[in-house]
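Late entry, written up from scratch paper. The run itself happened at the end of the previous shift, but nothing got recorded in the book at the time, so transcribing now.
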Amino acid sequence: METLTSLLAETRQTLAQFDGLTLASLPLPRRDQAVLALGLIVLLAVAVLLARYILRRRPGRTDIVLPALLQAAITRRSALAPVRHAPFFLFLAGLPFMTVAIADPHTALIEERATFPGHRIAILIDASLSMDSSFATEQLGWGNTYLANVSAADYFVRRRMEGSHRDLVSLVQFGGEAYIVTPFTNDYENVLLSIGLIGTPEEFDRFPDHGTLIMRAVSRGVELFRTFDFLNSQGNLMVIFSDGQDTHAVYEGQSLDDILQEAADNEIPVYFIRTAYNQGLGDVLPDITWKLAVEKTGGRF
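Output as recorded:
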């Protein structure tokens, strides 16, 4: 049923394109060849008619006359006899289309898709050792928190794809260090491919640094915005997918408030998606600390 619906939609679209098309405005690069081909067909038809007229059958010379042995009811003309001319009429009906096809018509079919500038989004995915804890979802079943976070990031990107705004998205994977997997790009498929490549148990096991420094990831995210000269642009934001198991208060001499203040000063709100199985707000020790910190940037926890 879906295939039939798609076919009908394509048919309506094709007919709609023909509505605004006229033969006078249709470019025909091989018009001369088409006229020549049509002329040859007409000459050939005339030649055949002349040949049949000249070589027509003559009773007594080219035909054999037989006595009427069959009854008239059997030999009478059938009502379907005119049907034998149907192929000839089909040929005549198709002749104009064949002529236009020989003329090689060209027309520009323009399809427009309106998009609008979107956000510049840095996606930060936690790959620390604590992300190996058990986690279950209705669609994925049992797995670990890391795979659940990767699936959530994939879902987030796909939802952004459905909108009319065209975002610039980057992907950062972090543990004790932060690694840029994909820099800012408007190619959603490339981002989804990168998410799929890091979203396997084997890739999680191969991740070289299973420590947890969310502050390092936020700092790297700000650096990424600075590298692409986006700090003065509107619509920047960071989305963190993590279990929130990070109690570090200082990184490279800067406190959590200092690092997030840098994001706030550059108008980069931080949205923290804390993923922990069967644990509500406050059940994870740093929850309140991170909630207060990210809300200062204009984001949410």
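The chain has a mean pLDDT of 80.
(Scratch paper discarded after transcription.)
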